[in-house]
Amino acid sequence: MSAPAEQPRAVVLLSGGLDSSTCLALARKQGFVCHALTVLYGQRHQVEMDAARRVAQALGAHEHQEISVDLSAFGGSALTDDIAVPKGRSGDAMAQGIPVTYVPARNTVFLSLALAWAEALDASDIFIGVNALDYSGYPDCRPEFIMAFENTANLATKMAIEQGRRIKVHAPLIPMSKAQIIQTGLELGLDYGLTHSCYDPAPDGRPCGECDSCLLRAKGFAEAGVRDPLWGP
């Protein structure tokens, strides 16, 4: 599918969660033709993929690709392995160490796939919805990692070496709180009822309300002073 010639293309990593969905809305607002990429990495719940499809359609992604890289073959995470998801943790507890919901090298893998597609599309922009304020301590969500990956991309691609085009990894949510992210998405017309955040949803997709991701989401909506549409009227 061809994109309008006058608009730059971008690959946007889209999980269907609150952050990545806001990131897609921001990329569109900035005038990019958005090619959404969802990675099926062996996560235990189909509800994530369903949310990504809803969001991509609602936000008018020019194209939405799903690619499978089964990280559950390695295990080592509560999101891909038979490991209990932590529940009911305090903010202080979340700030201590890296939790078992961390998926080894996940964002490195995701960004590598996004980079490959960006080169194939002749696109020099990649968006990822990582956040370094209200998050669960993942090392691959930090500004240092994003900068290091961007530097690597510009050492490892034909586009950068032969054409002299600098590849940019955009992480616009990094300095924002969850409340600021939610406020931004609402201003852009994003329906957060389409998104999914829970690490351990019920069989019907309802969020558990107790995992780190649910608690951070609840904190964000409370601080933003708006109701989370996932929890009804």
How would you describe what is shown here?
This protein has helices at residues 18-29, 47-58, 91-94, 106-121, 143-156, 158-163, 178-187, 212-224, and strands at residues 9-13, 33-40, 63-68, 125-127, 168-170. Helix content is 37%, strand content 11%. With 233 residues, the protein is α/β, with parallel strands linked by helices. It has one domain: 3-Layer(aba) Sandwich (Rossmann fold). The model has no long low-confidence stretch (mean pLDDT 93). The protein is globular, with a radius of gyration of 17 Å. It starts with 8 loop residues before the first strand and ends in a 9-residue tail after the last helix. The chain contains eight helices and five strands.
